[in-house]
């Protein structure tokens, strides 16, 4: 995890999360019911099958609040887990365990839900050459965590932010009078040779213009599997092919069979349900 999520970013997120959860007066329930010197052992336990993600983030959350806590993980991120399985054992101040519980589980449940759904999409296209990738449809300030969860689930990352690469969409083309070649060439002439250019098309007859302008990637938007297949044949290796729009677990296999290189799926970050995990004493 630490090679993907900078420590400073993780610590900043935890600080904000605890500030939000503790409010102005702290955990008044725990402070009024649990003695300061009491210690306990608790376990993070799966209530559902899935792919775990965020085990090190949960550890960091407990240690952020109390660096004397002992945290022993029993699984690593990316492992398939089953309902009832113990994922980690945590020993330390009872008050600290109770106070850090929700922040730690919020991260873990959310990220494990993303990795689990991503894994379902990856499994659905086994046997094809396509790769599942996420989008920028992420929760504000959680993008680095959610994109990490996609990778843990076996998916790939799209651009991280607007400065990573050029993605010319229909509105950019419309702003240039509908001229695809002009729009793409303008972008290419403005950027250095290291910056890749992706162009969104929703009709097959736009492909040649996008490639003529210098597109590296053709994003085939809301096309049927048959249209995707025709588009891949027309592109004929001149650019990377990415399918987007109308992607779900019922359609993704047919989309992959069209021959595209990537399938971008917004729902793996914006609509993945939480994986049910709990802290049991």
List the helices and strands and how they pair.
Blueprint: H1 7-22, H2 28-33, E1 39-46, E2 50-51, H3 55-65, E3 70-73, E4 80-81, E5 86-93, H4 94-124, E6 131-133, H5 143-152, E7 166-168, H6 170-175, H7 180-190, E8 197-201, H8 207-213, E9 217-221, H9 225-235, E10 240-244, H10 252-257, E11 262-264, H11 267-270, E12 277-280
Parallel strand pairs: 6-11, 7-8, 8-9, 9-10, 10-11
Antiparallel strand pairs: 1-5, 1-12, 2-4, 3-5
Question: Which structural traits does this protein have?
Answer:
281 residues, Aldehyde Oxidoreductase, domain 3, 2 domains, 6-stranded parallel β-sheet, 12 strands
What does this structure look like?
- By secondary structure, this protein is of the alpha/beta class.
- Helix content is 42%, strand content 19%.
- It folds into two domains: 7-114 and 273-280, Quinolinate phosphoribosyl transferase, N-terminal domain (Aldehyde Oxidoreductase, domain 3); 123-270, Alpha-Beta Barrel (TIM Barrel).
- It contains eleven helices and twelve strands.
- The strands form three sheets. It has a six-stranded parallel sheet with strand order 6-11-10-9-8-7. It has a four-stranded antiparallel sheet with strand order 3-5-1-12, covered by helices on one side. It has a two-stranded antiparallel sheet with strand order 2-4.
- Helix 3 (55-65) packs antiparallel against helix 4.
- The radius of gyration is 23 Å and the shape is elongated.
- It starts with 6 loop residues before the first helix and ends with a strand.
- The model has no long low-confidence stretch (mean pLDDT 96).
